[in-house]
Amino acid sequence: MKAVILAGGLGTRLSEETVLKPKPMVEVGGKPILWHIMNIYARHGVTEFLIAAGYKAEVIKEYFLNFYALGNDVSIDLSNGDITVHGKKQLPWKVHIVDTGTHTQTGGRLKNLKLWLTDGEDFHFTYGDGVADVDIKKLEAFHKAHGKLATVTTVRSPARFGRISFGKNDTCHFHEKPESGDGWINGGYFVLNKKVIDYIAGDSTAWEREPIERLSAEKELVGYQHDGFWSCMDTLKEKTMLEDLWASGKAPWKIW
After folding, report:
1. Structure confidence at residue 165 (pLDDT)
2. Strand pairing partners for 98?
3. Architecture category of domain 2-76+92-246 in CATH
4. What's the whole-number average pLDDT of the chain?
5. How confident is the model at residue 161 (pLDDT cuts 50, 70, 90)?
6. Where are the domains of the chain?
7. Distance, CA of 4 to chain centre
């Protein structure tokens, strides 16, 4: 499967960092959080990525264009400009960076990737700011077993996030960002069939609104309950917490 990662939002709640770069490029332990997310997937054999870029897309492109050279020794012949990369550290990843628009909503970004996905294809889908110790292989198997169009990984978190409740046969109901409450919330690690793109009207559609609500109403959305570690990086406080975990050498999401 491919992994689609949303990486185009403005990240206004982390403006201390995102004034210069898109939020997925904000670093934890000296590496963009996007790199951490990609490593979570790669640990389970998912090594082809579709990055839905937007705000400051050039920062993401520059990072990956220089990724190989910056990770290895290089020789530069200043007489003719020839560059030789002495490759020692290589990752078997394929990365597609697609500019999906600066102000496009989350659903619209996915819709803009329609031509990059094969009809009938299942794929992973996540946000560019959340890390977890999710077992991606078990998530895939769960999705294939129930045969529905969409699986959402659910996690426990404060009530400021959208709440998810469960019905018969693990079908779930999505309640976006209630004022108060508890229970399971959207952890952001989805497995989807390409058919869900037909549920998205256009660039102004938020994935978390009409598409998910309709999938839920049609009983095509199933929740995969993850009891392990999960954290997003919405604020400087959350970034600092992730930095501290990484520095401790015990970051729970570091499964590679």
Report:
1. 64
2. 52
3. Alpha-Beta Complex (3.90)
4. 91
5. low
6. 2-76+92-246
7. 7
Whole-number Å distance between alpha carbons of 135 and 244: 23
Whose CA is closest to 122, among 100, 161, 150? 150
Q: In the structure encoding, which two tokens stand for residue 129, read together? A: 């700011």
Q: What residue spans of the chain are helical by DSSP H?
A: 15-18, 33-43, 57-65, 67-70, 106-111, 136-146, 210-217, 236-247
Amino acid at residue number 108: G
**Residues in a beta bridge with 124:** 3, 191
Contacting residues for 99 by C-beta, under 8 A, at least 6 apart: 8, 53, 54, 57
Please report which confidence band the pLDDT of residue 160 belongs to, taking 50, 70 and 90 as the band edges. low
Measured between alpha carbons, how far is residue 187 from residues 71, 133, 208, 232 in Å? 31, 11, 12, 8
Q: Which of 11, 14, 9, 12 is nearest to 236 (CA)?
A: 14
Pair 192, 198: CB distance under 8 Å: no
Q: What percent of the chain has pLDDT over 90?
A: 77
